[in-house]
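Hey, I was hoping to borrow your eyes for a little while. There's a protein on my desk that I can't quite get my head around. The fold is given in discrete form, as structure tokens running alongside the sequence. I'd be grateful if you could look everything over and explain what you see. Here's the protein in full, and shout if anything looks odd to you:
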Amino acid sequence: MSKKIATLVLEDGSSFVGTAFGSEGESIGEIVFNTGMTGYQEILTDPSYYGQLVVMTYPLIGNYGINLEDFESVKPRVFGFVVKEYAESPSHWRSKKSLDQFLKEHRIIGIAGIDTRMITRKIREKGTMKAIITTNEINKEEALQKLQSPLRNDQVSQVSIKQPFNLPGRGSRVVLVDYGYKQGILRELLERHCEVTVVPYDTNFETIKNLSPDGVLLSNGPGDPKDVNGAVETIKEIIANEIPLFGICLGHQLFALANGADTKKMKFGHRGVNHPVKELETNKIYMTSQNHGYSVSNDSVNNCPLKVTHIAINDGTIEGLAHRYAPAFSVQYHPEASPGPYDSTYLFDQFIQLMRNEKERKKDAQTSWNK
């Protein structure tokens, strides 16, 4: 049985013909690359990849199949998957289905048998660009014509929940604002016995305040932080009311914007599980998992009430911020994702301690006032 052909065309005119796997059809998105050797299931189901065609630089993908435990959301969010070679017959005791079966079920197009390292070099040289994957007959001119249309900019609204829900716990009460949260974030909070209420991305401050949270966690998510309507105003009020706050990835960028800093689109972003980050206070280096195409502009932090707490070793971009006066901090990387070491999970403990300290401070202030 002959395999179906798929074509990948980049916005710069580069064209690649390979073998189709997964679903059939056509998909347009922003093409990005991930340097992880493993973790493809987490990548496929990470809401931060919504609208993107993901290129895996590691040459063999799918060898351990798809299991029931490693989902970051209820379904895959990528628009297309590009690999050098995919394993048709996976081998792992947890595997329930192959990568091909999984993509077919969710109508996601994959292309294999092409030089993914070459594509990665093109992205690194020219920057992130639009691309199309199709199993239909198409010439380069037709493909480039289709790529003229702008990509959607409402990614967060597409991945965020529509109705809030609550998970009970006997510890701190946390409101998790869903810009496209990963299950790993929820897992870390629940392991610390938090009561978590997950709310949609556009929940206003009064609604959050009425939930009487000990703290608010701003989740990761896809797209440009400046496209998330209403988020900055809500975060400003959270900070003004001195509710402890922790931002992750997109939440970190929104935290920066709410404090007067600026964000910018990176040339090709950080996506992988081996990015070294330096914590400035301790000079410790952490190997981190990252997935972002925007960063906080370094110079913009100088004139706002934030201090830089972490930086990326590879390019010097900002990886962590803390408010100078309010109980609030953020990181650009993913402390809930473990690329091997678990050392970045201390940030969740830091958030728990911040909530306890603030609760105690307010209690002492109330007692003093009553006297």
